[in-house]
Amino acid sequence: MNKPIRVMIVDDSAVVRAAFSEILKADPALSVLDMAVDPIFAMNKMTKEWPDVIVLDVDMPRMDGLTFLRKIMAERPTPTVICSSLAEKGSDLAFQAAELGAVEIIAKPKIGMKDFFTESAEMFREVIKAAAGADMRKVTALLRPDSQTIPLPPIGKRRDSPDGKKYIVMGASTGGTRALEVILTALPENTPGIAIVQHMPEGFTRKFAERLDKKSALNVREAQDGDELREGVCLIAPGNHHLQLREYKGKVIAEVRSGPRVNLHRPSVDVLFRSAARILGSAAVGVLLTGMGADGAAGMLEMKQNGARNIVQDEETSIVYGMPRSAWERGAAHASLPLQKIPGAILNASGFTQ
Q1: Is 334 a residue of the active site?
Q2: Is 13 a catalytic residue?
Q3: What percent of the chain has pLDDT over 90?
């Protein structure tokens, strides 16, 4: 039998430590190796037995989570899930941690734990399992300076297309924040409109969009209900809300809604992709990136059946080759490509000459 995934919880909140421990112990595939009130205690404990996954707060006394994460990544890169508050400081620190190699971000539950236990417990367990499956060699490879930027693909004029305008829909989960940065920073400002679902908690997607907006030539922002999807604009689904597309007076419009989780996720890639299949048909280009599970695979197949051109990230460059594998094995994609080749493939599928 496979051994349970051993988790170290590092958080200065006794309430959070107790809650996470109880949630993890409910799944026989997971075990709580130990808990620590701060990174200094954690390092002492880890000299005896090293965890498979670390759940790490970022704002703690004595030693902050970022300093601890730097030490871990230098000594023995380990899948790390950042647990952060929804406050401005907390979300900013969480993304700094992602840039240091953390593979997932979760929102720190508030003192009232009832909603977290009833709705988010299974999602939290799946996040830990996804992190455990992350290939840290690929994470550290993406952290190298030469992987941060790639040359902008040579762009010619857009080919005349009988389909008219093109639109791009993308989905990602574990490892997706880094993959999306690589792709979006390589695309020109006249790229067709992009809609993205990245599995991420409420409160973090706005900060994520702001960071990408500063780094790319595109206008990247968190989607609001009624936003038009148009050239040069990239809309990111708000955490805890589904993003769909609809047609209104000849325009493609974002529809932001609540609703039940789909494939354990809200937002769900399948929800976005299925709306693209219905609304866009052959005008869509679908992209499915790194992540655990199968969210997006069924929707991507519907897109292909309706004439869309689809791309998945290959196994070699995926931090977790779950979502792309599921889509590829269903025959939902036309190409499986390394991350660095996806921007050029998106532009080609969108009607640009190379």
Answers
A1: no
A2: no
A3: 73
Whether residue 291 is predicted with pLDDT greater than 50 in this model: the reply is: yes
135, 270, 295, 314: the active-site residue:
295
Whether 326 is catalytic is no
pLDDT value, residue 41: 95
Q: Which of 38, 199, 326, 336 is catalytic?
A: 199
Edge-to-edge strands of the sheet including 167-172? 219-222, 233-236, 194-198, 167-172, 284-288, 309-313, 335-337
What domains lie within the chain, and their CATH numbers?
Answer: 5-133 (3.40.50.2300), 167-349 (3.40.50.180)
Active-site annotation holder among 173, 268, 318, 326 = 173
Torsional sign, CA 102, 105, 111, 117: negative
CB neighbourhood size of 68 (10 A): 23
Give 311-348 pLDDT, tens digit per residue: 999 999 999 999 999 999 999 999 999 999 999 999 99
